[in-house]
């Protein structure tokens, strides 16, 4: 308290000047119409800019909530796509009776850890087994295929990225339906993949879209990328094609985990077949 009094006493002339200056400005503005109008306009402009900046900050802080909401809405829309349905057609009295059943559902999740510069890259998301995620499920983003779930704890899951030396996806050219296998490019370019062992009869062109086929764990037609270079394989019977990836893995924020509701039934039947061999 003593230091405060000393400070006020030392600078009393300055504080007295500010008080008189404030009184003078008040009288000058209050009793002159033009100055009063100018002051009001200026103060309104300053206040408006201040509120606008505050509003911009609030909008920025709400981006995460907005993005989460959009991702959830996208997942709901994906659940309604025809590619998520299983067509069960039965012929009765020469009438094709078609019933659509839900085969794929989508679980939205946010990426919380990701790598793109290693030979074995993994992605961690903020959803796990409590949300219905299990090992072996496919993962996509808005652009296309992202990877495959390898581990799931109650609240988190680890995905083996498409940018991983062991990731293989059954794929095809969207136009010709000629199939092959898709893997990450050997030069570790995070923007490039390789579609290999495609028959020469495919006659692919630069820019052709590469998508998942009926043999993959993904729904048919999920993009992988576009053909960016054609490479004949030794022997001349097959082609290897460089593919520019449709997903920019360095910018991944939200993904969708695919739950194939018929996966266990299919795996169980295939396991029985193997035991009979």
TrEMBL record:
Gene3D superfamilies: Rod shape-determining protein MreC, domain 1, Rod shape-determining protein MreC, domain 2. The keyword Electron transport does not apply. The keyword Manganese does not apply. Residues 111-258 form the Rod shape-determining protein MreC beta-barrel core domain. It comes from the Bacteria. Keywords: Cell shape, Membrane, Transmembrane, Transmembrane helix. The chain crosses the membrane at residues 12-31. Pfam families: MreC. Belongs to the MreC family. This is Cell shape-determining protein MreC. The lineage of its organism: Bacteria, Pseudomonadati, Bacteroidota, Sphingobacteriia, Sphingobacteriales.
């Amino acid at each position: 308290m003593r230091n405060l009094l000393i400070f006020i006493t030392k600078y009393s002339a300055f504080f007295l000047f500010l008080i008189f200056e404030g009184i003078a400005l008040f009288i000058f503005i209050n009793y002159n119409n033009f100055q009063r109008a100018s002051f009001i306009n200026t103060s309104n402009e300053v206040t408006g800019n201040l509120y606008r900046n505050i509003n911009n900050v609030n909008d920025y802080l709400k981006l995460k909530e907005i993005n989460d909401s959009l991702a959830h809405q996208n997942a709901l829309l994906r659940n309604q796509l025809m590619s998520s349905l299983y067509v069960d057609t039965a012929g009765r009295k020469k009438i094709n009776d078609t019933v659509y059943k839900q085969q794929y559902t989508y679980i939205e999740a946010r990426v919380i850890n990701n790598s793109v510069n290693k030979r074995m890259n993994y992605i961690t998301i903020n959803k796990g087994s409590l949300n219905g995620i299990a090992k072996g499920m496919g993962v996509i983003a808005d652009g296309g295929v992202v990877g495959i779930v390898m581990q799931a704890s109650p609240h988190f899951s680890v995905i083996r990225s498409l940018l991983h030396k062991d990731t293989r996806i059954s794929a095809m050219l969207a136009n010709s339906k000629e199939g092959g296998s898709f893997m990450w490019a050997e030069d570790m370019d995070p923007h490039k993949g390789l579609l290999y062992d495609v028959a020469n009869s495919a006659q692919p062109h630069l820019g052709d879209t590469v998508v998942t086929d009926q043999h993959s764990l993904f729904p048919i037609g999920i993009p992988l990328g576009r053909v960016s270079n054609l490479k004949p394989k030794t022997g001349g019977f097959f082609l290897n094609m460089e593919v520019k990836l449709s997903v920019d893995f360095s910018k991944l924020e939200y993904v969708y985990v695919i739950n194939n509701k018929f996966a266990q039934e299919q795996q169980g039947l295939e396991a029985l077949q193997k035991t009979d061999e």
